[in-house]
Every structure is written in structure tokens, then in C-alpha cells.
Amino acid sequence: MNDQWNLSIKQFKNKWLQRLTSSKDGIYAEYLENYQNIEYYGEISIGTPPQTFYVIFDTGSPYLWIPSKMCDSSDLACQLHHKYDSSKSSTYKPNGALFYVKYGTGIASGFLSSDCVHIGSLNIVDQTFGEVTHQPGQVFINFHFDGIMGMGFQQSSQNSNPTPIFLNMIEQHLVDKPVFSVYLNLNEDKTTSGEIMFGGIDDKYYTGDLTYSDVVSEEYWMIKIDG
């Protein structure tokens, strides 16, 4: 990993010590690091004992994926980031189904596995995720995060239909309400660059009353706007 990446992670850990992931009555808050108002990423861990990774929380996709130790040595994006090693986890469960996801700017592929996922004090068991062995092109090479945690709707027609991690939180009765909320701060120097909350909403980040709108379809968090 390059010096800039290591410096960013060091700064992240220093801020992390100032604001640890907190939980209260089924509500969990995860601190996010802000890199140039482009990447907002947080720390998770997978396996037993835990292996640490940094992910962005993507509302436009449902899949969790992490680079795999089994990726090819020629895959530069993989080699420059933390990699999941299933042989070091006692809670790993093989799946083996093919995994593939295409974003607007990149592709990630590999195979599915299952393991425990930890987000602060929040522990999700038997979470199916993608072990990515191939990230073609230049897209993921310079990103500060290792992988992506999808917060979107489940897509039954792709990747053997793995359950999204937030739906697993709900089904495993880990969160107080079936709600997640996101706060993004454009000021990188603030202690709280951003936060994602599972199971509730932090009212210190807004004023007035919340307005609710129906989702147009269960594919994306998309609403209708008139005007």
C-alpha cells in the first residue's frame, strides 16, 4: 500500500479513537471517514478472529464484497488492499457460487462465501458476501476502501440471491427498527466526517420534522419528485 493510503488510514484510526462506534437500544452508529468529499468509508471486520476492512456503504447495490486472498497476483487493485483469508476464520462457511457485479465505472467478480460480519458491536452471523478475485482495469486501484457494502434492495435474479446485510440485521433482530440513516459532512477536518446509523435516526443532525415518501419500486431507494 502506498504512503498516502497508509497516512489516511492512520488519520482515520486517530479520529476513530475520538469517536468509537456506539450502540443504544438496538441502534448502532458507525463513524465514516471522508476523503475529499468523494469517498465516505467505514471500518468493518469479517470472521473469527476478525479481519479488518474498510468499505463504502452503497445504497445503489445489495452486495457486500471484499478482495479475496485468492485473487491473482497480477490484480493490482486486490494487491493494494486488505484481503479476506477464509483459512484464518473458524466461522467461515463455503458457498462457491459465482459472484459478479457491474457498477457504472467498474466490475468486480469472484465467488460467494459466508462468515460473521462485525460492525462495531453489531454482529451479523452467516452473512453471504463476495470474495472478489478479479477487479479489471484501473477503477478500484487508488480507492481508500477495500470493498463495498451494499445497502440496496435484494435482487433475486443475480448472484444466487444472497440476503443483503441490512436485511439480515432485521431478520436476526439486531436493530430496533428497519431503518438506516446516513449523515455526510463536507468538512474533512471535523471529528465526525460522516456517520451511518443502523436501526434509527440521530436527531442531532437535522432540524424540523421528517417527511416520508413511498419508494417507487423495490430496486433502488428511488422516490417520485414533482415540479
TrEMBL record:
Keyword check for Disulfide bond: yes
A GO molecular-function descriptor: aspartic-type endopeptidase activity
InterPro entries: Aspartic_peptidase_A1, Aspartic_peptidase_AS, PEPTIDASE_A1, Peptidase_aspartic_dom_sf
Keyword field: Aspartyl protease, Disulfide bond, Hydrolase, Protease
Domain Peptidase A1 residues, every copy: 40-227
Disulfide bonds: C71-C78
Pfam family of the protein (one): Asp
Keyword Transferase: no
GO biological process: proteolysis
PANTHER family in UniProt: BETA-SITE APP-CLEAVING ENZYME, ISOFORM A-RELATED
Family: Belongs to the peptidase A1 family.
Record's protein name: Peptidase A1 domain-containing protein
Organism: Schistosoma margrebowiei
